[in-house]
Amino acid sequence: METSTEETGKIISLAEVKNILKKISKERKELLYEQKIALEHAEKFVKLSAKQTKELITELMKLDHVEEIHAYKIADLLPNTEDDIRAIFAKERYTPNDKEIKNILEVVKKHSVE
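RESULT FIELD:
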């Protein structure tokens, strides 16, 4: 569940969303309902730190045919099967071949183990 900030239109990872919402919760007494739900979701599903996620995204974007939006989706979901990768690219004009899928999975596995 990547999102983009309204002010910049920049894509951010779920790990970054978690950090932003935690910061907001410290500054305010209470989060808005939607923010609480988003923070609960992030805390439940984020497996890497924001720094680890950024490193993963950077490495994924070095691969052929992995655009920024795909890198963020992959980093948020941490897919571990070829079918998971195919699902991420299902609505795209380009579908990675078997070698590219294996490369993506190798990068994800390398960062997930750390």
